[in-house]
Amino acid sequence: MKFSDIKFRIANSYIVSSISITLVLLTLGFFALLLFNTRDLSNGAKESITVTVILKPDVEKGDADALENKISAENFCKNARLVTPDEALEDLKMDLGDDITDVLDYNPLPTTINLNLNAKYSNTDSLEIIKMRLEQNEIVDDVFYNRSMVNQLDKNVRKITLVIGLLEFLLLIMAISLINNTIRLMVHSKRFEIKTMQLVGATAFFITKPFLIRSLIHGLFSSLISIAIIIASILYYQNSVDDIVKISHIEAVFGLILLAGVALTSLSTFISVNGYLNSKSEELY
User: Fold this and answer.
1) Helix or strand (DSSP H, E) at 50
2) Beta carbons of 183 and 269 less than 8 angstroms apart
3) Cα(180)–Cα(264) distance, rounded to whole angstroms?
4) CA of 221: how far to CAs of 79, 188, 189, in Å?
5) 74, 141: one domain
6) Per the structure, how many domains does the chain have?
7) Do 65 and 113 share a structural domain?
8) Helix segments in the chain, DSSP class H
9) Nearest CA to 215 among 165, 177, 272, 160?
10) How far apart are CA 21 and CA 26, in angstroms?
């Protein structure tokens, strides 16, 4: 076999393995991005739930403002807004298109405080505790929130997070397996070279070092290609994904891809090389 043919086969094996590892890391990255943004979307849905604090009819404006400020300072509160009867009437006019005072001759709407909770408090247990705390205030008449919607949202978020998390875990196992098999095939082609170096007295570190350096470069190259493809995809669909893809999430995904690419290729190389170092010569055939 000509030397040029050997070089071509080696180069071809590196290209094929790089493509394989890149595709695995790319899929892993997209699923991680999906998982992060699913969590954000669920948090956004939880924080959109409105808790309405209905104040007593004779409440003074100063007392209502003081309660609004007190609620706003609580850890569970994302934002709070005091709605006077006149403001509530204007909102109702916009929704219904009619003025109810034309029929009733008075404004029956109470003063309310509408608040949205931070996502970790938007569950049935926390909401019930918050509801009881707010009802203990002497100027509060009632506290209302859509309990059925909260329960359904909790169930849906758990199901979606579980499914995507399970898929991500399975994909990670597949990524480890595929990358390990790819690296093992590459090292397998060098098994005689490894054994020959060992037989002439080379230390395990001396033999393993060039393989590890090569695998680090290999993993880093595949990771950077995967990251470049994800960046190109986001830029291409920028108008569509701009509202849901967060920079912090992209950085976390890129870190995951780099870590997976470098760590998995290096670990697989180390295990494979040491496997041949510990094997007998007749086992190489």
Assistant:
1) strand 50-55
2) yes
3) 7
4) 46, 21, 21
5) yes
6) 2
7) yes
8) 3-47, 61-72, 85-96, 101-104, 124-135, 147-188, 191-199, 204-236, 238-241, 247-277
9) 272
10) 8
3-state secondary structure (DSSP) of residue 136: coil
DSSP annotation of 97 reads S
10 to 13, 16, 173, 284: CA distances (angstroms): 5, 10, 28, 19
Where does a domain end: 125, 145, 165? 145
Which of 111, 145, 179 is where one domain is finished?
145
Instruction: Please check whether residues 162 and 277 belong to one and the same domain.
Output: yes
Do 118 and 160 lie in one domain? The reply is no
Say yes or no: 173 and 254 in one domain.
Answer: yes
Are 79 and 115 a contacting pair, CB within 8 Å?
yes
Closest among 15, 3, 23, 62 to 260, alpha carbons compared: 23
Are residues 22 and 76 both part of a single domain? no
Show the tokens assigned to 171.
């994909």
Does one domain contain both 139 and 160? Answer: no
- Contact, 68 vs 80, CB < 8 A? yes
Tokens of 225: 């290609």
52, β-bridge pairs: 114, 144
Length of the chain: 285
Domain with 93, as residue range(s), is 50-145
**pLDDT tens digits in sequence order for the chain, 285 residues long:** 444 444 445 455 567 677 778 888 888 888 888 878 777 778 888 888 889 898 988 888 888 889 999 999 999 999 999 888 777 777 666 766 566 555 566 666 788 889 999 988 888 888 889 999 998 988 888 888 888 888 888 888 788 878 877 887 887 787 778 777 777 777 766 777 777 777 777 777 777 888 888 888 888 888 899 889 888 887 777 665 555 555 557 888 888 888 888 888 888 888 877 776 666 655 555
Report the greatest alpha carbon distance in the chain.
104
> Is residue 129 domain-shared with residue 171, that is, in the same domain?
no
